[in-house]
Design a protein that fits this description.
mainly alpha
Length: 126
Amino acid sequence: MENADNLNKYKLDIDEAIKTIISKEDRLVFASVVKVADITNITVFKYPELRGYILEKIKFEKEIQVIDKKIDRAIARLNKGNRRITFISLMNSCKFNSDHIYNNPYIKEKIRAAVIENTRALCKKK
């Protein structure tokens, strides 16, 4: 039971470390996560599932960063070209597959939020 509590504590520390690294816009790599979370090599050897957890979280966060950057760039391109920002225009500009969008709720919600935000910005301008 004590091992499970320690493991959960380390996982919380890892989550906080990843959030800190992202907020500082530093490079998200295994070594920096372990350093910020103050986890030693001995700890990683003691709890081998921590290594997999860290790598999985890093992969997930990097995918989110890539998606966010694609959507932000697409919005900038569409605004620069004085084109309307719609769900379909963002989907095409980001070159997302429609199956990929509809199966990934994060992408779908991020595009919806971007469309709503830009629609509100247009309404305020008028």
